[in-house]
Amino acid sequence: MGDVLAGAATGVIRGRNDVPPRFRPPAPPRHFVGRDAELDAIRSGVTLLHGAGGAGKTALALKWLWERGSGDQLHVDLGAHDLGRVLRAFGLGADPGEEQAVFRGLVTRRQFTLLLDNADSAEQVTPLLPASGTVLVTSRSELDLPRAHAVEVGPLTDDGRLGRLLDLSYVELPERQARLYRLCAWEADAFGVPVAAAIAGESECDVEDALDDLVEKSLLTEVGDDAFRFHDLVRAHARAKRYQ
User: Total structural domains in the chain?
Assistant: First the structure.
């Protein structure tokens, strides 16, 4: 295992400041307000940020990394990135049964601050946690992770800045998403893709992509499989846009 990490057998660990671009944390959203308490709650070691889809967990993690993180930072989207692909990007190779151990060794050796994004289960995350260092994990569930400090990311409350944030986010929406945002806000409770498609008069495929984009921008909350709901303050904002 030591030979693998040193690169003698399967690859060479590169020098610092050369994290492959696709695994570097992106900049946080330009329009980010609130979450001061949640930012302060993130600490060294393992921090789990959990909450509903669209609550802003990834945005919060990126904001913390951008402002308070240190050293090289590695972002692994567990919903999209294959672990073998991550290792190969660093010039490392491993048999499937050794990938998790090689990954832990890479993170420890390079002293990465690690963001494990969109985790589904503790079983998915636990084998990837290094013995030391700072790790942020985002998940829709409150995972039972060893040594983890859990921070719930709930809906934003209006402290006087939310309305401005929503205005800034809204004006940057493509027209399809903006129209869907305005129309679906008149649904009083959770709704699915078929309902949204009927409201918009568009195909379910197109509408599903637009809804996912609204969730990504924290303008809509995903509350189940293909089920969505507006936060009350966001719903009021969207309804007002229909008359402007």
Answer: 2
**Band of the pLDDT at 98, cuts 50, 70, 90?**
very high
d(CA 93, CA 99): 8
User: Does residue 6 carry a pLDDT above 60?
Assistant: no
Structural domain of 182: 162-241
Say if residue 141 is in the same domain as residue 61. yes
pLDDT value at 2 more than 80: no
pTM higher than 0.90, yes or no?
A: no
229 and 118 co-located in one domain: no
Residue that terminates a domain, selected from 152, 180, 197: 152
- Domain-ending residue, one of 134, 152, 170: 152
Query: Would you report the helix, strand and coil content of the chain in percent, each value rounded to 5?
Result: 45, 15, 40
Paired strand residues for 47? 136, 149
Checking if the pLDDT of 14 tops 50, the result is: no
CA nearest neighbour of 205 among 191, 226, 221: 226
More confident residue, 196 or 159: 196
Same domain for 171 and 144: no
Residue 137 C-beta-side C-alpha neighbours within 13 Å = 29
Greatest C-alpha distance within the chain:
66
Q: Which of 67, 62, 65 is nearest to 134 (CA)?
A: 65
DSSP 104-169: HHHHHHHT-EEEEEEE--HHHHGGG--SSS-EEEEESS----TTEEEEE--PPP-SSSHHHHHHHH
Any domain includes 34: yes
